[in-house]
Amino acid sequence: MDYRSDVVEVINSCGEEDGVYQVTISWVAKQFSKAEILRHVMTHEIHHIGKLLSVCRNPSCGSELFQ
């Protein structure tokens, strides 16, 4: 399977130091590490992929791509 090189680079560059760097989000009174944010975004996107796959497996989707 081919992976986008920019995505692979970001994933591979995430190291121990990313757990130390803290980010403050304006709408939350809490700090998060760069690693926590990256894990959250990845989990969120995987969730969306799963939802798309379940919808497109439905015969009413009209797409043969995911069946």
Count of beta strands? 2
Oligomer: single chain
> What does the radius of gyration come to?
17 Å
- Please count the helical segments: 2
Mind describing the biggest β-sheet? 2 strands, antiparallel
Low-confidence stretches: none
Order of helices and strands: HEEH
Question: Helix/strand/pairing class, anyone?
Answer: mainly alpha
Percentage of residues in strands? 5-15%
Main sheet: which strands, in order across?
1-2
Report helical residue fraction: 40-55%
- End-to-end Cα distance, whole Å, is 18 Å
Mean pLDDT: 76
Q: Any idea what the shape is?
A: flat
Describe the fold and architecture.
The longest helix has 23 residues, at 34-56. Strands 1-2 form a two-stranded antiparallel sheet. It contains 2 helices and 2 strands; from the N terminus they run αββα. With 67 residues, the chain is mainly α. The protein has a domain at 30-58. It has helices at residues 5-13, 34-56, and strands at residues 22-24, 31-33. The protein starts with a helix and ends in an 11-residue tail after the last helix.
Brief overview:
With 67 residues, the chain is mainly alpha-helical.
Topology:
Layout: H1 5-13, E1 22-24, E2 31-33, H2 34-56
Antiparallel strand pairs: 1-2
Which tags fit this structure?
single chain, 67 residues, mainly alpha, two-stranded antiparallel ribbon, 2 helices, 9% strand, flat
